[in-house]
Amino acid sequence: MVAAPFLFDLGAADPLTFLVLLFLYSIAAAVALPIPVEFFLLLNPGVDPLVSAAVLGLGKGVGAIVVFIVGHKVNPWIERWIGRHSIGGRILKVLELFVRKTGWPGLLVLLAIPFMSDTAVNYFYALLNEEGHAIRRWSFVAANVVGGTARALVVLWVLPLILGS
Is residue 126 pLDDT above 60, yes or no? Predict the structure, then answer.
């Protein structure tokens, strides 16, 4: 309940404070928070949409570094588990194949979809990344930056056109 007044006050924050908090929330959303960051974009219309989109994208990139490292550390455990469990292993092998086939373009597309959970998509790709061979670290980070920026621009420019606002 403490966060609710903070969110309402964020709309009245000065642009620099808003951008710093947007950056920090974007990192947290990429790493652990299930709430999409698009809601924050709509709270401060006084900031240029390109600036907000760039800040959001950079925050996603910083968060992606953390997620990639976690995925790289956990993936060997997943690989061992796959080797010991036939049915679950087959399912995870199919999912690994999906990550390998779609690569960073698939990650980018999923991250550009408004209100998609960044956390779930990032960990899906990071954990099933076959020890970092399906998507390299900087491709993973770049997909997050570009996908996050594209998503922000869709929310700030395209959705209002579609909704007639």
Answer: yes
